[in-house]
Amino acid sequence: MTDIDAAVHALGGETNKVIYDDIGMPSIVVEVKETIKILDDIVYGTSTLPHPAFVVNGVRKSKFYVSKYQNVVLNERAYSLPLQVPELKMNFDASISACAKKGLGWHLMTNAEWAYLALVGYLPRGNNNSGSDYRGAERGGIRTEKADRSLTEYILTGSGPAAYAHNGESSGIWDLNGNKNEWVGGLRLMDGEIQIIKDNDAADFTVSQCPSSEHWKSIIQDSSLVPFGTAETIKLDYTKEPVAGETLSMILAKNLINQQTDASLHGERAFKSLESRAGFDIPHILKLLAIAPWDTVSDGYIFMKNIGERPAVRGGGATDGNKAGIRTLGLNNLRDLNDFAFRSAYIDILDTAILADESGVALATEDGIIKL
Question: How many whole angstroms separate alpha carbon 362 and alpha carbon 201?
Answer without folding.
Answer: 24
